[in-house]
Design brief:
Blueprint (H helix, E strand, L loop, with lengths): L12 E3 L1 H12 L6 H9 L3 E5 L2 E7 L4 E10 L2 E11 H4 L2
Parallel strand pairs: 1-5
Antiparallel strand pairs: 2-3, 3-4, 4-5
Length: 93
């Protein structure tokens, strides 16, 4: 499932405090994830799931890992709730 990028704009992507703090948490575990990578995953996922009003976008970040981003659509914004790296093999990406 793909998002329609024409309907989305990077300035319309907001981060919760938890998501902002998560950059340091994943860095502690050896993952250098940028805001741009999170936004790219939301706007152009390789796989997109929906659960209880939240979307989970997944996109490869290297040969071994993918990034999963949990977000919600709220009025005119997309709000990133959290994100986390996963092994690509687990999600078939």
């Amino acid at each position: 499932m793909r998002c329609k990028e024409s309907l989305l704009d990077t300035s319309r992507v907001k981060f919760t405090k938890h998501a902002t703090d998560k950059f340091e948490v994943v860095k502690h575990y050896g993952f250098e994830i940028s805001r741009e990578q999170v936004i790219e995953t939301v706007l152009g996922p390789e796989h997109l799931d929906r659960k209880d009003g939240q979307y989970i976008a997944t996109r490869a970040i290297d040969l071994k890992y993918a990034l999963r981003v949990v977000y919600e659509k709220r009025k005119e914004y997309l709000v990133v709730i959290t994100f986390y790296p996963v092994r690509r093999e687990r999600y078939g990406i």
